[in-house]
């Protein structure tokens, strides 16, 4: 982990969380239990406070930041896809923010919502629970189904397991020069893309 204090404030990482060594945490950052922070994620708590509650994940190349005096929060079991940007917003319990989405200042995403990939959520947008947000600017498309929430919850559980797997087995190595015979596959549980479950 690349951990930096600023103005005497040091990031906090729960021992059960996994933060990839290439991730950068600066200042007022609090990473709770069973969280996963992916490669090259940046949590820059040099103005506002950044909080990942229990079981949340923040995937590869995500950015969290906020204006002075604000809290940027991913609530319990929040799931933030690759490349998303969260700035001074709140992501509700068990919600998913899709890849490359941007959630702006003062926006609140309610519980069990899904923000589609590449969506732009305007500042101060208030999204009711169980909403599907799509587009740029993002608009509520419809309610999220029980099946979609079950799929999202399973995916988040896989990231909680990934935090454990990473703590137990991830290490920096030199690459092999050729593919070995009978090369094994990663034995993680199978979570299919949502379109395959419809």
TrEMBL record:
Alphabetical list of InterPro entries matching this protein: Hexapep, PaaY, Transf_Hexapept/Carb_Anhydrase, Trimer_LpxA-like_sf
Top enzyme class: hydrolase
Keyword terms of this UniProt record: Hydrolase
Chain intervals for the UniProt region annotation (Disordered): 173-198
GO molecular function, one term: hydrolase activity
UniProt cross-references to Pfam families, sorted A to Z: Hexapep
EC number of the protein: 3.1.2.-
UniProt key word Hydrolase: yes
SUPFAM superfamilies from the UniProt entry: Trimeric LpxA-like enzymes (SSF51161)
Official protein name in the record: Phenylacetic acid degradation protein PaaY
Organism: Dasania phycosphaerae
